[in-house]
Amino acid sequence: MRLLVLSDIHANLEALEACLEAAPAYDSVVNLGDVVGYNASPNEVCDRVRAMGCPVVRGNHDRACSGLLALSEFNLVAAMSARWTQTALANHHLNWLRALPQGPLLREELPGIEFVHGSPRDEDEYVLNNLTAGLDFHMPGHQDVIFFGHTHLQGGFAYKDGKTLAFAPRYQSSDGVVRSEMTLAPEERYLLNPGSVGQPRDNDWRAAFALYEADGEKPARVTFYRVPYDVQQTQARILAADLPERLATRLALGR
Ligand code: ZN
Q1: pTM of the model
Q2: What is the CATH number of the domain that holds 68?
Q3: From the CA of 10, how far away is ligand 1's center (Å)?
Q4: Mean pLDDT for the chain?
Q5: Which domain range does residue 166 map to?
Q6: Rounded CA gap, 197 and 17, in Å?
Q7: How far is the CA of 167 from the centre of ligand 1 (A)?
């Protein structure tokens, strides 16, 4: 079973297309939310994501851009982009976004895994450090492997014998398509973030995603990917839409 995990695409069409092109063969896809917001191709990205027919957990930007979350919850730039997205989105996409389920999401065909946008405790929580991750690991009733997004930071946390350890993939090169594989120890629990497709914030501008593999006999594995994309084209769309320039400049910095 090979599962493609996408998160925080944020209306970045060029990044999404580059990821799908670079992705190895997979059996199914799960999307951890924030399909829209920040970047300027919300309709095209909703078209692509809906055509994939995969489960999607709702993100805070999906709620804000479809009127389910007050824009006063956002900083000025995020609120401006959410307002722009509300007016740009086709009605059928707005309705689809409003109907997205809140995490945690479970799939019958993927036992032992759950999917959230923020954290298992709170869909809007940022799991940024060992303290927060530890609190999440201590929540009763959750699965051993939890995929989360929201922070736009690729990597995650492992938990064993009461200790929480943060990790991030290391790559050989800052150019081109790169991958970093890790084996999941059966006695450990994991919070895994595939990174953000459309607005990475870990100082690597390349689009991020992950592939989870489990085939019964071998221990499960997760492979993190980074993929270059046509960032100038994404930036040109942002500027043409009169969105804040900062949304364009940050993409090239990966921040
Ligand atoms: Zn996001």
Answers
A1: 0.97
A2: 3.60.21.10
A3: 7
A4: 96
A5: 2-251
A6: 10
A7: 20
